[in-house]
UniProtKB/TrEMBL annotation, chain B:
It comes from Selaginella moellendorffii. It comes from the Eukaryota. This is Integrator complex subunit 3 N-terminal domain-containing protein. Residues 47-450 form the Integrator complex subunit 3 N-terminal domain. InterPro entries: INTS3 (IPR045334), INTS3_N (IPR019333). Coiled coil: none annotated.
Length: 150, 452
């Protein structure tokens, strides 16, 4: 049985092994990708944090705010300059309920700053007030309003 | 000619709509049995739609239920497919015909067409057909009324059912009168007749509903049958033939059971309200409120639901001490939001009445402080940021005390005094000082407060 991850524990990675459950808070306007496929971003969250979910094609209309959704074999990585959660080719988004889930909106794992893990070349650490000063390169293109410690 | 849709008495003329439908069917019968329809000129769409409806309703053993897969059952399905190919208006015309048929002639429909209508309803829901929700509601109401009136002796011997039916009809009749669909008139008359006769002939049982019966009867007092009931309640209580009932004031002191308030909420509404008051922290309710509004309060007709919600929150949902002491969304905050959802003055007044109703008749021995706690807290907590709310509620409270039932003013004054006494006595609020001294509250209101 795959372990369920809390949104707070998401870490950028190329692997498609993210299993997590969240509630959809807001959907932003859809747009067409270069290949002409419908794409939209949603703000989603669980009781620990929020994150941006990227939806593709039919997913865009299938899910609405207040839907509780389970993601299986998803990916949390960069799409262009944005760090997003998505199902990817091997993953699956499924609606499992509505409304009755507690959430917090801060921190937002997509908009916070990340630094490379000094002990692991492929790893990233979220930059919060409790983490040490960055010694590795900062994440290029990570959207953040307050660089450095809070 | 024998009717295939409706019961018809020996001297009864054929129903007008049935004539239209069956004639359309005769005209297009040959075309319908073809497996597809060639392009239909616009002028023919109307009659062809009528023909299709008639054909589906009389189709033998056609699509009668899940799993029907014989050649005949596919005929009803193929007829529906033909309907789809010629439809350009979201099935509006088709549903319109059905609405008229169900509204005018439901009681006379033969067994088989009735079954076909249910099957049709399910198909139309799949198609997201225009007005299908109205059709569904109309069918529900017709079926409910028919069951109740044809099994009337069983209903009257089942007191719980009887009182629930009366409560439900009284609650829904004002909503139905606001509905723009005036063709609902006949059904409404039948519902009024049923309800009024239940009250008159089974008054003893209806007394068990308690004080909210009065509140509901007020909202239908403009309807002739209920106006007559009001006159008798006030001036001629003996006409109800219950010896122990001599004055309407006796009804005020009977608390309405929580099951009535619960019956007005769907399970989903209840689940969402409960979730908000049990798991959502104060300050985090904005999104949940938005979702709830969008789901349940987004149409003008749904506004009256606010009153049912307020009664539910005050009288049915009593948080535990643990929740009360936590930072979970308190009931007064939810009610403040609900009051703000009211757009029309009429609904707003009813909502305030729903909040303060138990204040007016509070009897310490039988009433529950938890029913009146949200009221005082909305008033207190709205100072100073939302002090208009406090002013509005206080003003309304004093208005009620003087004018809700002038001959029985004393009773209402005692009720409010008892409410204040227990709220202060049990420490829900320390005293009325914050209300009596806040400069933002109108002076006349503060003066009246000091007299409480």
């Amino acid at each position: 049985m795959a372990t369920m991850l809390k949104v707070r524990d998401l870490r950028p990675s190329v692997g498609n092994n993210i299993n997590t459950t969240f509630i959809i808070l807001e959907k932003y306007n859809a747009s067409r990708s270069d290949g002409g496929i419908l794409m939209c971003i949603a703000l989603v969250a669980d009781s620990t944090a929020s994150v941006h979910l990227q939806m593709w094609g039919a997913e865009c209309d299938a899910f609405q705010p207040s839907d509780i959704v389970r993601l299986t074999n998803g990916i949390f990585s960069f799409h262009k300059a944005n760090l997003v959660l998505r199902a990817g080719k091997k993953g699956l988004l499924e609606k499992i309920g509505e409304f009755s889930m507690v959430f917090v909106e801060i921190p937002n794992m997509s908009t916070m700053q990340w630094v490379q893990d000094p002990t692991n070349p492929k790893g990233w650490i979220p930059l919060t007030h409790s983490s040490p000063a960055p010694t590795g390169p900062m994440l290029a293109g990570a959207a953040s309003s307050n660089p450095g410690r809070h | 000619m024998t009717s295939k849709l409706l019961h018809r008495g020996s001297h009864e003329a054929q129903d007008e709509l049935e004539i239209i439908l069956s004639q359309a069917y005769s005209t297009f019968q040959a075309q319908l049995s073809a497996s597809y329809l060639s392009t239909v000129p616009p002028a023919q769409r109307g009659p062809l739609t009528q023909a299709l409806l008639y054909a589906i309703l009389i189709q033998p053993q056609g699509g009668g239920g899940a799993g029907a897969s014989s050649a005949t059952s596919s005929s009803a399905t193929s007829l529906i497919n033909q309907l789809t190919t010629i439809t350009t208006d979201g099935y509006a015309a088709f549903v319109g015909l059905l609405l008229r048929l169900v509204n005018d002639s439901y009681a006379k429909l033969l067994e088989h067409p009735r079954g076909q209508i249910i099957w049709l309803l399910k198909q139309l829901i799949e198609f997201y057909a225009t007005d299908v929700d109205n059709l569904c509601l109309l069918l529900l109401r017709q079926i409910m009324l028919e069951v109740l009136t044809t099994k009337i002796s069983w209903v009257t011997s089942n007191h719980g059912l009887l009182t629930s039916a009366v409560y439900t009809y009284l609650r829904l009749l004002p909503d139905h009168s606001m509905a723009k669909n005036s063709s609902v008139n006949e059904l409404r008359q039948a519902e009024i007749k049923f309800c009024a006769s239940m009250i008159r002939e089974h008054f003893q049982e209806c007394l068990g509903i308690g004080r909210d019966l009065i509140r509901l009867l007020q909202d239908v007092s403009s309807i002739a049958e209920f106006d007559a009931i009001w006159r008798d309640l006030l001036a001629n209580p003996a006409s109800f033939r219950v010896p122990s009932f001599t004055d309407i004031g006796q009804l005020y002191v009977v608390k309405t059971h929580t099951r009535y308030f619960q019956s007005r909420l769907t399970p989903e509404m209840e689940a969402q309200i409960k979730f908000m008051l049990t798991h959502v922290r104060m300050g985090s309710q904005r999104r949940y409120q938005g979702w709830f509004t969008q789901r349940f309060l987004s149409t003008p007709e749904s506004e009256t639901l606010v009153c049912d919600l307020i009664r539910y929150v005050c009288c049915v949902h009593h948080p535990s001490n643990q929740i009360l002491q936590s930072d979970i969304l308190p009931r007064w905050a939810l009610i403040g939001w609900l009051l703000k959802c009211c757009k029309s003055n009429h609904v707003e007044a009813n909502a305030k009445l729903a909040l303060l109703y138990d204040w007016l008749f509070f009897v310490p021995k039988t009433d529950n402080i938890m029913n009146i706690e949200p009221g005082i807290l909305v008033m207190f907590q709205s100072i100073p940021k939302y002090v208009d709310m406090t002013n509005s509620l206080l003003e309304f409270l004093f208005l009620l005390m003087e004018h809700y039932d002038p001959p029985r003013k004393e009773l209402l004054h005692r009720g409010v005094a008892a409410s204040v006494e227990i709220l202060v006595g049990k420490g829900v609020v320390r005293n009325l000082e914050p209300l009596a001294t806040a400069p933002a509250i109108a002076l006349p209101l503060r003066e009246k407060l000091s007299q409480l």
